[in-house]
Amino acid sequence: KARDPNQVEFHQAVQEVVESLAPYLLDNPKYLRMKILERLVEAERIIQFRVPWLDDQGNVQVNRGFRVEMNSAIGPYKGGLRFHPTVNLSIMKFLAFEQVFKNSLTSLPMGGGKGGSDFDPKDRSDQEVMRFCQSFMTELYRHIGPNTDIPAGDIGVGGREIGFLFGQYKRLRNEFTGVLTGKGIEWGGSLVRPEATGYGLVYFVGEMMKARQETLSGKVVAISGSGNVAQYAAQKVIDQGGKVVTLSDSAGFIHDPEGIDRDKLAFVFELKNIQRGRIREYAEKYGCYYQAGKRPWSVSCAVALPCATENEIHREDARLLLANGCQVVAEGANMPCTPEAVHEFLRAKILYAPGKAANAGGVAVSGLEMAQNNMRLNWTREEVDGRLQTIMKTIHEMCGKYGRQPDGWINYVNGANIGGFVKVATAMLAQGVV
Ligand code: NDP
């Protein structure tokens, strides 16, 4: 904390991991002796750069770009790019740190990294987004590569942005390689990558509920966000017979007690991905409740899937969810629950899964996209989806291995942190002091 005094989000992420790991480290002093933890919290490399570009009026705009290359002990750096005005070094470092553990849990050979910019793609034309992406890649390209660092999407970076970034990388390097994941299916992408984080989240929830002989069928589910993760999580919940009653964006949330069915969800896909509109328009079209400036946690539900952004469930929200009967909380977003909220869930011993386990499906299928690119082959939808389900099941088993308590309840926070740590720490020990 003394070294980076203002990096609140990074400290929050590290503190959670250290609290989980402490007993394990005391039982395994070799990791302490070799200062594995001290090395894990120090990024291998941080790149920060200027991103100048011209807007549609011909004005010069200047943004800040980042890439945090956190840890490459088990594979090349891998993690998304986020374009959002709140992006700063603390957020980049927290996301990169979490990514190291998440990628390890997938059992695929991927190290951890994260990057992005404080650029806001909202209300920008396609041409402006393209010029920004080209400028961003004109610096980033020299630091990344298919065997070095393979970025993907995150908030504000979807198929459109990955396309512009890939086009510029290819032009600068004069080579067609799998340097980014989340590519279009026609040019090296993988089937099921767009769906992977949301689907993987719901597969993970299925594994959690299985232990209690329950399924999602007939359950009321509150989802926050209305972007990539939220949309596909909602789709899979509906497929499995659950009733999705909320969605949100940064301006407010909708509550549709009748449930968001397939037709209504199709409208959300069109609204958010094509028209780039606001979730308020859903309430206007279907005549349901909309509240500005609030998140959906006051709504009664059995399952809550926060899929928007960090720190969107606070202690009071957690208490409200519990009081209203919520029994399962699984994080589609990264660190959406504050430490105080997590504490409430753990104290109540409900089924609570942190993002590094529950939302690992996205990076897992990114890993599968890399494998397909290396083989210059495309797997079928069934093949990729089957592998995704197996990976989510394996992550769940790993959480059980390290997080199961004597009474049978699984502390998924401990399970994910220790499970993710062991492989990376073993590799770091083997590779010497580097
Ligand atoms: P999108 O940009 O597609 O969607 C983000 C959604 O969250 C939008 O509805 C957005 O609303 C809302 N949102 C963003 N910032 C805020 C904020 N500060 N306050 C309230 N709402 C906000 O991103 P994704 O769906 O890809 O990502 C969502 C979360 O999932 C992030 O935490 C991301 O790190 C995590 N994640 C994503 C993965 C992926 O594969 N995409 C993989 C693993 C984790 P608005 O439209 O108003 O901005």
Overall helicity: 40-55%
Determine the number of helices (DSSP H or I, runs of at least 4 residues): 16
Mean pLDDT: 97
Low-confidence sequence ranges: none
- H and E order: HHHEEEHEHEHHEHEEHHEEHEHEHHHH
- Based on CA atoms alone, the radius of gyration comes out at 21 Å
* Largest pleated sheet: 7 strands, mixed
Globular, elongated, flat, extended or rod-shaped: what is the shape? globular
SSE diagram, text form:
Elements: H1 8-27, H2 29-33, H3 36-40, E1 45-54, E2 60-71, E3 77-83, H4 89-105, E4 112-117, H5 126-140, E5 149-152, H6 159-173, H7 196-210, E6 220-223, H8 228-239, E7 243-249, E8 252-255, H9 262-274, H10 280-286, E9 289-292, E10 303-305, H11 315-323, E11 328-330, H12 339-348, E12 351-353, H13 355-358, H14 361-375, H15 381-403, H16 412-430
Parallel strand pairs: 3-4, 3-5, 6-7, 6-10, 10-11, 11-12
Antiparallel strand pairs: 1-2, 2-4, 7-8, 8-9
Helix pairs in contact: 1-4, 1-16, 4-16, 5-6, 7-8, 7-14, 7-15, 8-9, 11-12, 14-15, 15-16
The protein binds NADPH dihydro-nicotinamide-adenine-dinucleotide phosphate.
NADPH dihydro-nicotinamide-adenine-dinucleotide phosphate binds next to helix 8.
Active site: 114
Subunit structure: Homohexamer.
Protein name: Glutamate dehydrogenase
